[in-house]
Amino acid sequence: MSIQKYKEAREIIELSGGGDFEGAKPESLVIKAERALNLTFPPSYRRFLLEMGCGNINGLEVFGLINDNFEKSTVPNGIWLTLNERRSIGLDPAYIIIGDGGDGTYHALDTRKVDSAGEAPVVLLSVDGRHSKQVDDNFGAYLLKVVTDIV
Asked: Over 15-41, what HEC string results?
């Protein structure tokens, strides 16, 4: 179901002009990012990285992959940002930051709560990263909701 929602979101993005996304990333880079975070990406987020990388539509940034420089980068490189937040605020290593939540908060995948399809819920993290509130069941649902709201 998450993959289907991801596909619907991608169609909306394409129909509204395509946004400004990095573009497809090779499997080898996605694997390198998983190793850097010591996590496995949920299927819908992995597909997003492989097909779109990262980017924005109408000012909405979706964090993901730019290149393999995970030490010195900028947003929307979500891998770099996740590693940076682990170092700076002690972010739980189960989180993958995927978007800006506003007011210093972030949207993240919570890989501690993976379902039977391998999908992780999307949570809104507090500024200090110590508290979270679930906002969507998975990345596909999150992307569809935010894209629908912004287009």
From this structure: HCCCCEECCCCCHHHHHHHHHHHCCCC
